[in-house]
Each structure stands twice: as structure tokens, then as C-alpha cells.
């Protein structure tokens, strides 16, 4: 019976349920952080593509491969960077699917064990102050026309 998957066995008490829930939330946060990290890499790839695309195809170009700087031409590097970007976008799409699946799993777990998240008093106060100051960072010119 020890070989059963964790999802197959019923938790015996509140502490086990809480630990399982915390583990699921941790997995969700890990997926979020990985998606964010990969989106930053896609952004960097886009910057590189936009920078070298208008250049002459025979121009020298340097690329870091596994910690080694190699000399190539723009013609050789551009398709490789584009392929890497496409691959990263594909991984992000798969992670987003896993994220939605994990969110659904957590929602079902919360419903099954009637889990509710309580906000601390300080968080509730912070939320109300955010609503009031939601237009922070917006500059508005004078109401009257200029002479």
C-alpha cells in the first residue's frame, strides 16, 4: 500500500490536509516563477532578434554557446535564436496548461476539504488603501486650456 500515489490516499487529519495543500500551493508558485523566468528569456531573445535582423547577413556575429563565445555570421545566428525563442514559447504554453490544471486541482481540493484562506487584518487594511489610491502614477494636465 505504500506504493500508492499521494493523490490516491485519503488524508487522516487536518495537519495532513494542510501539508498537502501547502505542497500544492508551493508547486503552483514554482510553475508561476518558471513561467516568469522563461518569459524574460523570450523577451531577451526578441531583443536580440530585433537588433540583428536589419543587419547585413554576412556580418560577423558572436554567440555564447555553453559559456564559450563563438564567431558566426548573422545569417547563421538569426535562425538559431529564432528557433530557441520558438522553443521557449512552446515550453511556456505547456507550463500554462500545467498551471491551469494545478489551479483546478487546488480548487477541487479546497472545495473537497472546505478550505478557506483567511486574510490578516493588516492585509485587509492594505487592500482598502489600494482601492482608494488606484490612480497612483497617473499624471493629469490642468483642466483649463492653455493660453
UniProtKB/TrEMBL annotation:
SUPFAM superfamilies: Prefoldin. GO terms for molecular function: unfolded protein binding. CDD domains: Prefoldin_2 (cd23163). InterPro entries: PFD2 (IPR027235), PFD_beta-like (IPR002777), Prefoldin (IPR009053). Residues 123-147 are annotated as: Disordered. GO terms for cellular component: prefoldin complex. Belongs to the prefoldin subunit beta family. This is Prefoldin subunit 2. It comes from Rhamnella rubrinervis. The lineage of its organism: Eukaryota, Viridiplantae, Streptophyta, Embryophyta, Tracheophyta.
Amino acid at each position: 500500500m505504500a506504493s500508492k500515489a499521494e493523490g490516491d490516499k485519503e488524508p487522516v487529519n487536518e495537519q495532513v490536509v494542510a501539508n498537502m495543500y501547502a505542497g500544492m500551493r508551493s508547486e503552483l508558485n514554482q510553475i508561476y516563477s518558471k513561467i516568469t523566468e522563461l518569459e524574460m528569456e523570450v523577451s531577451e531573445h526578441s531583443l536580440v532578434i530585433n537588433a540583428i535582423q536589419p543587419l547585413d547577413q554576412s556580418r560577423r556575429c558572436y554567440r555564447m554557446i555553453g559559456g564559450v563565445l563563438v564567431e558566426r555570421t548573422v545569417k547563421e545566428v538569426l535562425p538559431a535564436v529564432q528557433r530557441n525563442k520558438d522553443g521557449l514559447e512552446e515550453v511556456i504554453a505547456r507550463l500554462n496548461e500545467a498551471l491551469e490544471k494545478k489551479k483546478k486541482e487546488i480548487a477541487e481540493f479546497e472545495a473537497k476539504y472546505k478550505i478557506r484562506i483567511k486574510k490578516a487584518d493588516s492585509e485587509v487594511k492594505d487592500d482598502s488603501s489600494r482601492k482608494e489610491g488606484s490612480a497612483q502614477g497617473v499624471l493629469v494636465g490642468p483642466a483649463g486650456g492653455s493660453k
